[in-house]
Amino acid sequence: MSSTIWSVDDHLEDILAAIRPLDPIELHLADAQGCVLVEDVTVPVALPPFDNSSMDGYAVRVADVQGATEQFPAVLTVVGDIAAGGADLPAVGPGEAARIMTGAPLPPGAEAVVPVEWTDGGTGGGAATTMLPAGSEPAAAGGEVRIHRPAAAGAHVRERGSDVGAGDLALARGTVLGPPQIGLLAAIGRGAVRVRPRPRVVVLSTGSELVQPGEALGEGRIYDSNSYALAAAARDAGAIAYRVGAVTDDAGILRATIEDQLVRADLVVTTGGVSVGAYDVVKEALSDVGGTEADGAVGEEGSPAGSGPGSGSGSGSGSGVDFRTLAMQPGKPQGFGTVGPDHTPLLALPGNPVSSYVSFELFVRPAIRTLMGMPDVHRPRVRARLKADAPLRSPEGRRQFLRGTYDPDAGAVTPVGGTGSHLVAALAHADCLIVIPEADTSLEPGADVEVVLLG
């Protein structure tokens, strides 16, 4: 372990300098949600591809309904029925109308659509509220319809290309594909897109005291909450997360477990075993996982690039993972490097629940989003007024991250729970982190503070 005390910013800079976005791949739309486009997507055909009705009603010529009123309706001959997807379109001539459904193509000769509510629906009675079903009332596609209002040219018609035109830019490279973007790609006929994939993140906890939730809790044992919380956090960041059951305090077992997991990992996250205790075996286990040679950044094409952990930036030990002491609370002990033949990035986090989660938000989440090629890898930060009953204390020389709840309307933040790194309940009720800089040992109520938003 290096004797240097690292700042939060320097440690994060080291991590991000050693990680590059994953190589692009072609994915079907159903698998591309949350991924980042690596190419501009243009529109091959106009959207919509033809003039179509935005209402259920009647396709008409403007001149035939001009001046129509309820007292003196325009009486037109119905020449056919047009459903969405219809191909054989009846022409609409003078004095004629065609029943038309929402999304159906506008027939030749028609200039506008009159909503069915403006007509008698072909019943000969008063204003209609719905179209007569074509199956149960075949005669509705013929006969006459009385129209009670005029319509201007183009009324209730979605014109061809009114959404996007052929050759327009649909989505630019760098776009994160959410549900609306997936819908647009499908609408213009793209079945697959070239994206950076969601990284596969393996999360494992270490500690012989850990028991899986649902099992009996023996004397001196605790439930493994970290691997569940961090796997959930990885998914929230956009990754595909694989949670591994807790590994006992045995360096050989831990080493073998990590080596086995490398086949499905773009990033490995461990929690626990990075401090200075007699049973903190992570440092020992990670000294040579898979014949590691961590000699730089993991870049596109899987090649090392530049300097990084294990190549002079840390302890200089030649180890794949550099273990450090950071000037922060919680989360002072940290580890980072690459392991295995493919130089898979690995972040080793402390074992206390709050320490591990805060460390994930500060270091692992940005790493995941860098692998994804995200345009912004950091959580949003705001300034807020501290709302507290007493001053907040912080050790000199450490950047402290306290849990809090943020009120955007009031521009205020309130601490939740204490400073203990084991306070899981307080963490569960927090939606932000309150940042106390290294130089500040006390913050008075009402002070202006930096807040990291977690929601």
Report on the architecture of this protein:
With 455 residues, the chain is an alpha/beta fold. The protein has eight helices and 31 strands. It has helices at residues 8-17, 62-65, 179-187, 226-237, 251-261, 282-285, 353-371, 424-428, and strands spanning 5-6, 25-28, 36-37, 41-42, 52-53, 57-60, 74-82, 96-100, 112-115, 144-147, 157-158, 169-171, 192-196, 200-206, 210-211, 222-223, 240-247, 267-271, 297-298, 304-305, 321-326, 328-329, 333-339, 344-349, 381-386, 392-393, 399-407, 412-415, 432-436, 442-443, 448-453. The strands form nine sheets. It has a seven-stranded mixed β-sheet with strand order 1-21-23-24-18-14-17, with helices on both faces. Strands 9-6-8-7-10 form a five-stranded mixed β-sheet. A five-stranded mixed beta barrel has the order 25-28-27-29-31. Mean pLDDT is 87; it is low at 291-299 and 301-319.
Give short descriptive properties of this protein.
seven-stranded mixed sheet, five-stranded mixed sheet, 455 residues, 31 strands, alpha/beta
What is the structure about, briefly put?
The chain has 455 residues and is an alpha/beta fold. It is built from eight helices and 31 strands.
Portion of residues in helices? Answer: 10-25%
Computed Rg: 32 Å
Strand order of the largest sheet: 1-21-23-24-18-14-17
| Low-pLDDT segments, ≥5 res | 291-299, 301-319
What characterizes the major β-sheet? 7 strands, mixed
Residue-averaged pLDDT, rounded?
A: 87
Q: What fraction strand? A: 25-35%
Cα distance, first to last residue?
Answer: 34 Å
Count the beta strands. Answer: 31
- The chain-level structural class is alpha/beta
Number of helices: 8
